[in-house]
Amino acid sequence: MLNIYSSRKINIFNKIKSHSFSKHISYPFIPVICFESSCKCYVDNPYLKRIGYKAYPDFLCCLNKSYEGWSDWSKKALIRDEKIASYIIKESRNFIERNEKIVCKLESKGHESSENEIIDLLDEIDSLMIGLYHLYIFFIDESFELEDKKTNKILPEIRIKLSDFSSRLYDLCFVIIDLISSKFPNIHKKSFSYATIGEIKDLLRHRIDHNYFKKIKSRPILFITAENKQFVFVNKDALELKEHIRKHDPSKNDGAGLFLLGSVAQKGKVSGRVIKITEAYYDKIAKIIGNRKNYILVIPMTRPEMVPAIKNSIGIITDEGGITCHAAIVSRELKKPCIVGTKVATRRLKNDDIVEMDANKGIIKIIR
Predict the structure, then answer these.
(1) What is the spatial distance between Cα 148 and Cα 281, in angstroms, rounded to a whole number?
(2) Which pLDDT score is estimated for 253?
(3) Where residue 197 falls among pLDDT bands split at 50, 70, 90?
(4) What gap in Å lies between CA 248 and CA 283, rounded to an integer?
(5) What is the SS3 assignment for 304?
(6) Considering only 135-139, 189-193, 318-322, which range has the smallest mean pLDDT?
(7) How far apart are CA 284 and CA 303, in angstroms?
(8) Spatial contact of 331 and 350, defined as CB atoms under 8 Å apart
(9) CATH number given to 259-366
(10) 290, exposed or middle or buried, with CB in 10 Å at 0-12, 13-18, 19+?
């Protein structure tokens, strides 16, 4: 279980403030239980130890109202050996095959569940999510740097399989929120989306007053991995830490000036007007795009439902991603110039900016 710390009670707050974090991201993702489980993969990752690394670089993720990618981590390739890559691929396939029946069983459970059954369901999904992300994180963080073309072709396929499995677990998290909400009709359903696993368990065990949950709706929450441990901060502590760390962000690509840099996912050179869509508006993509065409799509990261918007664009720019990300896969299929991993595109670029994309070199020039 993750503990929620208060900076006013213990020294961990000031200790963490002195850290230099390698991956910073702010993300409007709810329910919290989805992200909480996936963030645990950064602690005691058995596969990381298997390939000879002690721990991931320090990492933070803030769940707040809007998306903001501050800097991607060092991009140090962890896997250059074909045997290790084959091992990760094999383990990924085995994990999905091994747990397919378990997930199907969870998906078929009825909506009439006791409080203890909901706690068991939470534990099962938490365990599955951690196990999945122990492997999936290598693909998300683009940890592979290989020369073998056959293996490089397989990597995106495995990433998609892991992503699909992850989506099923996310859907189960929403089912849990519905189950809990039905048990406590006097508490706004949205409050449960901002609760941690530990808080939900305590509520189900009648260890937390209902009024506590009525106060947590829409609160910011910050997950931090430091020194191979997980910490959680909420409310003012989360915002203060986030702001402090952003000011001391060591990223060299801070988006200053008229140029942005990223990684080439699909070559090409185009100029056009920006349409920026952040995470908070992913469900309104069709309305935002309308009948517009020949724009440059600027987004934190792509998802399958964005393909129609990508097809009508002349280029794609993302904050996150690398050679196996969804944007890279789709852009290569559609032959659309694409630059990924800029870290700050959605922070620096505005709607209707005119930019020149040189996706041969990974350079974006802001013209107007």
Answers:
(1) 38
(2) 44
(3) very high
(4) 33
(5) helix
(6) 318-322
(7) 13
(8) no
(9) 3.50.30.10
(10) exposed
Task: Give the strand order in the sheet containing 263-266.
Answer: 259-261, 363-366, 354-358, 269-276, 295-299, 313-318, 338-340, 263-266
* Chain segment 277-286, per-residue pLDDT in tens: 887 788 788 8
Residue 222, helix vs strand vs coil: strand
- For tokens 């073998």, what's the residue? 148
State the burial class of residue 71 (Cβ atoms within 10 Å of its Cβ: 0-12, 13-18, 19+): buried
Q: What are the percentages of helix, strand and coil residues in the chain, rounded to 5?
A: 45, 20, 35
Phi, psi (degrees; rounded to nearest 5) at 62: -110, 120
Domain with CATH 3.50.30.10 in the chain: 259-366
Lowest mean pLDDT among 26-40, 87-101, 162-176: 26-40
- The confidence score (pLDDT) of residue 124 equals 94
| Residue 79 reports pLDDT greater than 70 | yes
Instruction: Give the number of other Cβ atoms within 10 Å of residue 286's Cβ.
Output: 11
DSSP 282: G
Q: What is the pTM of this model?
A: 0.71
Residue with tokens 């185009």: 270
